[in-house]
Amino acid sequence: MILERFSEGSSPLHRIDPRVKVCIALPLVFVVALSNRVVLSNRYEAILLGLAGALFLLFYARIALKAVIQSLRVLLLFILLLWIFLPLSMQGDTLFHLGPLAFTQEGIHRALSISLKSSVIVLYIISLISTSTVFSVVHALHHLKVPRKLVYLAFLSYRYIQVIHEEYLKLKNAMKIRGFRPKTDGHTYRSYAYLAGMLIVRSYDRAERIHEAMLLRGFHGEFYLLHHFSIGKRDILFALFMSIYIFGIVCLEWIL
């Protein structure tokens, strides 16, 4: 479920222009994701600098560490699976044995690099993108000349995924009220199949009603914005500082 739990705050980072945060987040994510030095030569300086910057941004945004860890639960499960399978499946020099299982040095380095990269990228997104409301981010994408259809698709998807989730909760509560208890039997499988089917039907009906309501209100394929952003000195200084920081990561990656 998509929530705006990190957008509620009064930190300096929350008050930065969303356009600046989007323009900073994109190169940061690409620089970390395309870092090859950590894979080819097992050097972690650039990634560790990226991790330090991500932690600084979280501190700057005054985001509680507990809330961040709760948001990283799915990622941590994925990382755990990497650490189970990569050291065993990749060929290379054996680092140690655990019974008949051989853990390779290359597999451990690859698992470590993927773990660091994915964690840093998610922390960047939390600190830079999630500290703004979804409407502000979509508004920023509109100002940054992202294709209008993609902007509208992102906004409407966010809005109505929540609506579909509410419909799912209503159906689930109705099943509980009628005494449904999930088990590993045919009745449970049929019940979940009916739940999925009803969710699809209700989603289609809701989409039809929303489309008709928009047409009645004169919607012609464009949302009109009444308020616009303004860049101040704080936004410029933040963009300058983060640009120097990105340049530092690139220098560690390719020059040193």
Describe what is shown at a glance.
It is built from ten helices and two strands; from the N terminus they run αααααββααααα. It has 256 residues and is mainly alpha-helical.
Spell out the key features of this protein.
256 residues; mainly alpha; 2 domains; two-stranded antiparallel sheet; 10 helices
Class from secondary-structure proportions: mainly alpha
Write down the overall mean pLDDT. 84
- Give a quick account of the main beta sheet: strands, pairing sense, barrel closure: 2 strands, antiparallel
Number of strands: 2
Low-confidence stretches: none
Helix content: 55-70%
Order of helices and strands: HHHHHEEHHHHH
What number of domains? Answer: 2
Q: Radius of gyration from the CA trace?
A: 23 Å
Helix tally? Answer: 10
Protein model, in words:
- With 256 residues, the protein is mainly alpha-helical.
- It has 2 domains: 18-141 and 230-254, no CATH class; 147-216.
- Helices cover 70% and strands 4% of the residues.
- The protein has helices at 18-33, 37-40, 45-60, 65-71, 73-89, 105-129, 134-143, 148-177, 186-216, 233-254, and strands at 94-98, 101-104.
- It has a two-stranded antiparallel sheet.
- A hairpin with a 2-residue loop joins strand 1 and strand 2.
- Helix 1 runs antiparallel to helix 6, helix 1 (18-33) runs parallel beside helix 10 and helix 7 packs antiparallel against helix 8.
- It is flat, with a radius of gyration of 23 Å.
